[in-house]
Amino acid sequence: MGYLGRPTQEKIVFALAAALCIGFALFLPGFLTANNLLNLVRSVSILGVLGVAMALVVIGRGIDLSLVATMAISVGLTMQLLATGLPLAEAVAIGILFSLLVGAVNGFLIAYVEIPAIFATLAMGTLIYGFGKYFLFQLDVLYLPDAHRYLLWLGQGYVLGVPVPIIVFAAVCLLAHLFLTFTRPGWYLRAVGDNLAAARIAGVPARPIIVTQYMISSLIGFVAGMVTAASVASMNTRIANSTYVYDVILVVVLGGIGLSGGRGSVRNVIVGTLLIGVLLNGMTIMDVQYTLQNVIKSVILLSAIVIDTFLNPRDEQTAQQGDI
Amino acid sequence: MRMFKTGITLAALAVIGAGAAFAQGIDDPTREPFYSALEGKRVAFVPVAMGFDLTEGWAAGIRSQLEPLGVTFEIRDPSWNTDAGAQAITSLISEKPDAMVIHNPDVQSYARLLKRAEEAGIYVIQVNMNSAYSTDAYVGTDYVGLGEKMAHRLIDECSPDNGGSGKVAVVQGVLTAAASAYQMQGISNVFADHPEMQIVSNQAADWDGTKARNITSTVIQQHPDLCGVVGFWDVMDLGTGAAIQESGKDIFLITSGGGNKTACDGLENGTYSEVVSYDVPGQARDIATMIEHLLQHGQAPGSVKSTLFSPLTFMTKDNIGPGSCWTLEGQN
């Protein structure tokens, strides 16, 4: 293996993505154009932003199954308020507050009530969706009012030829990377994820850190939701009920962030997102039917995991509690 | 002479008597059977999900027509879950309402249940998305016909004879839904005779705007001379339209829907080029009327089958006015 070092899952997935890219570039006319590549990244940038949110939680040895529901309902709320004539700043502020509140409740249930993250957030996701559907909205799809069509820039605009969603993705990646690498809460988050008991003995305020990580993920979710809403001029709250959150987890796990916590970085999310993007884009160009696309996607994902298991076999040492 | 006088008097008295009776009004013989046939009846509605323009519009329309007549109208909302829908129908079969209005998520899932419901003595009306089994009534769009008409519009706009490139894309909903399968059949029927028209992409976006958008942007990248797109539902095709608008190209987008205000808004702001409306309030009235009819004629469920295809309106920016689209109560 030489200078490449140990073949981690991240490298394997990156190699797969690169191999697919080369294959598509050779056999699919129109794949390797600047426009198509930009379009490729744009189409998965929302998935990537959500992946970063999920990654932060997973690195802290948690999981946030309510991420997509929180995104849908908080952004839906903002759209609804805009439609009733509230100014942009207030509508957005209320949406952000709502998502932070959900994050705080998640964190509280997990850190203080000590409910396992998977159950707490699963229940919260359903609760939030039900709350939105029953108390807030009449329709599943909330439209961006015409008076606020300038918001479409966030989803459909360009800066120097680069679509805005890609810039948002890049910015979120950068901020998350800086947070994990250079800030004290970022270090704490990794320490808590690696070994909660040891971190606490070392003086890390473990519980507040856990609450913070869920608030951050909800907040990033809101950003992803605003970009989603802007790119199709509406928010489909039904997405909360879909399997989208598993796609997000897939991006994280595929990129090589272990569900056991403490390991991984933003780079893993980028790699995982790119593989999914290349796959989807190539198959759409080839006009592969949707059902077959799902089959191919699953096979490639499974093979990535199988290769990883062969190259990095699990044993008593590496297998940790919570490893799926 | 005397007899004649008596006759006149009697006749006069009869006329006066009749006049008196008319002055008080007479009973309309159709009222009693109509109201007694409907009073106290129960109608259940199982949509694919509540919470979008079509199902909310039907429910509101049926309710406003039937409830004043003393009919109980209830909704079982499976919220996009086919299993939950099948369970709702199963439990309704044992509860025996007088009629059920069913909106099928696909052509197979409910087909047997609907047959059982009819055998159990419940009238079954299917709305807008049919199952493989025909019940007492189908009220909704003729999707094969709709597909054919949309295909002809694409030929008008995009055929090389008319100055287009002949390249079109199809954005379907859920592949197994009647709306997708039948519409595609209609499009294929027409394009079979038009080899100059080429479907460069035929993808399912699962009724989801974000998926529709991603698919469409990729297709536009891949086929810069794409001339037209046919989408299968206006709510989903907000995403298709967004991709077209972002590309800055002049691509003809035709889609269909219930004719809600969002369709007119989309035509005004250029998201869609043309929307075919199957007019949800009209369909709601058809459903309610069908229920009134079935409950009055009283024949065994399943014995007479009828189909009411909804009239279609082709709406463009130029032919719509303030009253062309409908709004839900409380809709902005």
Number of strands of chain B: 12
Order of helices and strands of chain A: HHHHHEHEEHHHHEHHH
On the 0 to 100 scale, the average pLDDT of chain B is 91
Strand residue percentage of chain A:
under 5%
Distance between the termini of chain B: 80 Å
Q: What count of domains describes the coordinates of chain B?
A: 2
Q: How many beta strands in the DSSP annotation of chain A? A: 4
The CA-CA distance between the termini of chain A, in Å, is 28 Å
Name the CATH architecture of the largest domain in chain B. Answer: 3-Layer(aba) Sandwich
| CATH secondary-structure class of the largest domain in chain B | Alpha Beta
Please write the CATH class name of chain A: Mainly Alpha
Broad structural category of chain B: alpha/beta
**Number of helical regions of chain B:** 11
Biggest sheet architecture of chain B: 6 strands, parallel
CA gyration radius of chain B, whole angstroms: 26 Å
Q: Tell me the fraction of residues in β-strands of chain B, as a range.
A: 15-25%
Going by CATH, the architecture of chain A would be Orthogonal Bundle
What name is given to the CATH topology of chain A? ABC transporter involved in vitamin B12 uptake, BtuC
